[in-house]
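FAQ: What does a ligand-bound record look like?

Like this one, built around zinc ion:
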Amino acid sequence: MSFLRNLYAWLVITRSNFMAVFGGWVSFVLFVFIAVCLIVGIARTLLAGRHLKRSSPLKRMTPDPELTKHAVESLQAAIRIPTVSGDKVAMDKLRDYLDERYADVFEELQFLPTTGASLLLRWKTKGKTDKLPILFCGHMDVVPPGDGWGDVDPFAGEIDEEGYIVGRGAIDCKNVVIGLFEAIQSLLKEGYTPTRDIWFAFGHDEEIGGAEGAAKISELLQKRGVRFETVIDEGGYITEEHFGRKRFPAALIGVGEKGCTYFKLTAHGQAGHSSVPPRHSAVGILAEAICRIEAAPPKARLLDVIEENMERSAPAMRFLHRFTVCNLPFSKPLLYRVFRDVPTINPFFRTTFACTQVKGSSAPNVLPGTAEAVVNARILQGDTPKSIRKYLQSLVADLDIEIEPMLETPASAIASTDSAAYKAICAVIEEKYPGLPCIPGIQTITTDSRHYEPVCDNIFKFMPFVMDSEIYGRMHNAGEKIHQSCLGLGVEFYKSLIRGL
Ligand SMILES: [Zn+2]
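The answer part, i.e. the structure of the complex:
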């Protein structure tokens, strides 16, 4: 009601302002034009969702108990092996465990040796086919546990009183690795053979860039001339509450990911005793540069896939957000503005900057000759590490500061939502969760899948596990966990997807 009251007040004030400025007929025509535009915009907003797939709270299904029990035990055992990136001993232990637990899988599928502890498996079709193979990915390494676990051992893989398996890797991404192994094993028991080659690649160093794992596997595949119709990696998931709305669950499917570049900023100043400071020190210059960078984010723009994402998400949004989405392209400037302060949405419209590390003097009374900072740029499709570096340089051109890129990962290509693979994923979603909308989007984080761009045009990032945003937020955080039934449903989903591709 307060919105309608404010709107009415705004209309009355606007009308009298028009009367004062333009007088008589001109102000009347202008006023009617604006009022009609507004009413049409509001009507379009209220009707949003009529032509879009609406949703209802997700019905929790019960997965096959035997399959779930086996998968739960496997995931618990995998979590108990602390495969923090770089720990070779733990990684070998996990490989040994997988060899033993899935001996039938290793016997049936072709194992291809790769570098490090990464795994590459090929499930060959027995028939003849022209279809290109499919590649499923995941990674076996995890990030360190970090703080905040309290009394819980992050590598115990215990089940809590609500039925969650708790531990590092539970949703990132031993659930994917175990889920796929369980699906293959179960399909083998059912006597299934794929109608095309299906490959599986599990990296051992995704959390530190994947240079020795996925990158090397990709090189091997390129040498062998293997191309894939699609690659399916971790990433999007089934959310129980899109935009925080329980009534609007959705399957979020990543069709691309932003790039990631670190820039080292080095400011130069006069070194010496802090009792005789210059007017502008190295630290001051650096601070000024950081303030300018934070105050001037690159221009926003609307990628086609983000427009589709916003339109499909509109029924889940609150009124003002929905108004901006339902009246595109006229409302584009308003769209960027209302989402500017929403940290989970703003990055989809622009390249973002985050200053992450700062270094100055080593003593409190010493002026440093140089001060350094690291700026992490997450690069939106359309920008490049080079263009962003140029942009940063233009912001600090008058300061005594150098900008040097430390790591440059460009933004990925965008996979097609018209592709057969995307439709196959959505078909299984519809089979398992009737009425659940499939919403494509891009990810702000990077995954191993980017290394497979030379061997595949359509890379999707989707793990078929149901979570709410609170559980998803535990990734790389304390209390990472997955529900047992969610794991079982994920295995069943992978089975259907393998059959359906
Ligand atoms: Zn991951």
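Follow-up question: can I read anything off the structure? Yes, for example: The two ends are 50 Å apart (CA to CA).
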